[in-house]
Amino acid sequence: GPTGDTDGKGAAARFTRLGRMTAGPDGSLYVLNEDRLRKVAPDGTVTTLARGLAEKSSTMLEAQPLHYLMGLWTDGSGNVYVANYGGRQVKKVGRDGRVTVFLRAHFPYSPTGGTVWRGSAYVLEYMDAVARARVRRLSPDGTITTLP
Questions:
Q1: Is 128 helix (H, G, I), strand (E, B) or coil?
Q2: How far apart are CA 106 and CA 112, in angstroms?
Q3: Residue 129: is its pLDDT beyond 80?
Q4: Do 69 and 35 meet the contact criterion of CB atoms below 8 Å apart?
Q5: What three-state secondary structure class fits 67?
Q6: pLDDT of 99 above 80
Q7: Does residue 36 contact residue 51 with C-beta atoms inside 8 Å?
Q8: Does residue 1 carry a pLDDT above 90?
Q9: Who contacts 107 (Cβ-Cβ below 8 Å, separation ≥6)?
Q10: What is the pLDDT of residue 90?
Q11: Are 92 and 104 in contact (CB under 8 A)?
């Protein structure tokens, strides 16, 4: 159908530029629509959970706006995580739509994806200058470990 930025059910909903997507534990589909996080419920109802998620760090020279938001994943509690490559951070969108910075990457790395498993968050980070990747684990107690 036509493009737009409208919440609604089924064909009444409108999207502009869809990006990454992931499934939630309740069967909902979460999609990035430009700089917005939108939820498509199992019954087809589309709601916008958060806006303005894309940011650019002053140290991020090579990223283009289309690539500011990279990975998208959920946890068992219904929170959604967005890897903001351009802003060198992972944002957490709560079930209530509240957005917080969950984890910051340090120059020259930027987050590109992740997952939550057994209470720990695993974040994939990439360093563009030399094409190198690493994984950092954030444990439930707040300890951050770079995995070998």
A1: helix
A2: 13
A3: no
A4: yes
A5: helix
A6: yes
A7: yes
A8: no
A9: 57, 59, 88
A10: 97
A11: no
Residue 38, token pair as written in the block: 């939108």
Q: Which token pair is 81?
A: 């995580």
Distance between CA atoms of residues 65 and 88, nearest Å: 13
Q: CA dist 64 to 23, 34, 41, 116, Å?
A: 26, 13, 30, 27
Rounded CA gap, 49 and 64, in Å? Answer: 24
Q: What is the pLDDT of residues 41-74, one digit of tens each?
A: 999 999 999 999 987 766 655 655 556 899 999 9
Contact 144, 138 (CB under 8 A): yes
Tokens of 27: 């069967």
Cα(138)–Cα(17) distance, rounded to whole angstroms?
Answer: 31
Tokens matching residue 25: 């534990």
Tokens found for residue 39:
């939820």
